[in-house]
Backbone:
């Protein structure tokens, strides 16, 4: 039930945002998230944006893999 | 091989390596029902070594909703000039006597909605009807329902009512963590609840109960990485609450959403199926919003709830039994004819196990 889908914000108008979820366009309420702007990615749950996605995270996997391969080689 | 496939392969390798280094058998619980589904769908259980057992937890809101709540919903649906508006998940959940689906067959009025704001719209459109919205779900959903109450107040709408069964996750985790029968060595913590509450409310799990935890995203790669993080903590003798889902979970959560929950709801003791009454784990509408509280304005009159004979959903939800240990599983209790809520919900432990592992004829490769 706590299903959330990532979506790209296309446009905003006060408390509403139009988002793209796999090419399906939805009108959602964005008033629970501070400063939603076109181009942002948000998580959508039951017609609301519940959080912004930050793009810069995601390098940790490679780091983890490097550590494990190194420790296997010891 | 593209970059994504390489990453997945690397993670599978890491899970196997780190899992192989475990010195003893361990039990992890994935708290959230959406994680349960993702784990089955991606075949993650098949990757894990025999030392690691994954247990499904209480994070399926439909599953932990007791019969009493369903009975009330059914009662509302059968009242004249009343419509029950609900997320689709609740529709087929059996109560003591009937599910909402059966109530609809008897003439009850039920409207499935995707968002609580649709229920507000329904009340606006039909001023002659009472619209009772079933507030189920955890911290992920509670702020949206709180917003719906505020917007009903703003439009001076008094035929929109909430039957609140909202629950909060950390309180239930405390009950789970304190149960010595479970012997948990790690928790995969819910990602979208954490979008709202942040990472900090789980710290007590590591500090008081010495159970490490990792907040996880929902892609198969997210879950594999979370498993690696838990294995690493165990192998290194650490015990912390970490977040793998940092792209969506700020340390302090979503302040705006937390404020709106705080504005509209107050804490109360609430019954969870399988876990009993957990102090402070429920959210009820504050007195100043009692005009929108179905239980105050229009209380349901129901008989004492009855349990389903032979159903062990309670033990499944609390992680004490596996779905296949239930004598009804796959026999009288099947997705098309569910006896208990864990078989109804698309993210219930029994329904998911049935679909992907036990007798999932349609999904076999």
Residues:
């Amino acid at each position: 039930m706590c299903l959330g889908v990532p979506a790209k914000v296309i446009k905003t108008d006060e408390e509403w945002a139009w988002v793209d979820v796999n090419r399906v366009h939805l009108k959602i309420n964005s008033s629970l998230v501070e400063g939603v702007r076109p181009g942002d990615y948000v998580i959508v749950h039951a017609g609301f944006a519940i959080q912004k996605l930050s793009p810069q995270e995601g390098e940790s996997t490679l780091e983890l893999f490097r550590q494990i391969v190194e420790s296997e080689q010891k | 091989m593209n970059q994504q496939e390489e990453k997945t392969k690397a993670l599978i390798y890491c899970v196997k390596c780190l899992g192989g280094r475990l010195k003893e058998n361990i039990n992890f619980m994935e708290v959230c029902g959406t994680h349960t589904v993702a784990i089955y769908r991606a075949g993650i259980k098949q990757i894990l070594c025999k030392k690691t057992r994954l247990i499904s937890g209480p994070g399926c809101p439909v599953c932990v909703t007791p019969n009493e709540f369903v009975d009330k919903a059914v009662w509302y649906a059968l009242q004249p000039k009343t419509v029950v508006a609900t997320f689709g998940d609740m529709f087929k959940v059996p109560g003591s006597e009937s599910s909402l689906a059966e109530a609809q067959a008897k003439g009850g009025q039920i409207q499935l909605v995707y968002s609580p704001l649709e229920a507000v719209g329904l009340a606006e459109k039909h001023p002659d009807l009472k619209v009772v919205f079933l507030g189920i779900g955890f911290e992920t959903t509670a702020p949206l329902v709180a917003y719906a109450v505020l917007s009903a107040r703003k439009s001076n709408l008094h035929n929109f009512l909430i039957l609140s069964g909202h629950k909060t996750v950390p309180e239930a985790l405390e009950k789970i963590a304190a149960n010595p029968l479970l012997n948990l060595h790690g928790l995969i913590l819910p990602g979208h609840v954490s979008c709202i509450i942040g990472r900090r409310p789980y710290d007590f799990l590591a500090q008081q109960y010495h159970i490490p935890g990792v907040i996880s995203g929902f892609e198969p790669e997210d879950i594999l990485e979370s498993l690696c993080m838990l294995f690493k903590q165990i192998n290194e003798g650490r015990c912390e609450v970490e977040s793998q889902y940092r792209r969506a979970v700020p340390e302090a959560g979503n302040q705006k959403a937390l404020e709106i929950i705080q504005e509209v709801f107050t804490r109360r003791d609430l019954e969870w199926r399988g876990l009993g009454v957990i102090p402070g784990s429920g959210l009820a509408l504050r007195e100043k919003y009692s005009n929108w509280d179905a239980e105050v304005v229009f209380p349901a009159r129901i008989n004492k709830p009855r349990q389903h004979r032979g159903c062990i959903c309670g033990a499944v939800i609390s992680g004490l039994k596996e779905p296949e240990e239930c004598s009804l599983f796959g026999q009288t209790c099947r997705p098309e004819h569910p006896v208990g809520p864990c078989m109804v919900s698309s993210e219930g432990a029994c329904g998911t196990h049935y679909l992907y592992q036990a007798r999932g004829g349609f999904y076999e490769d």
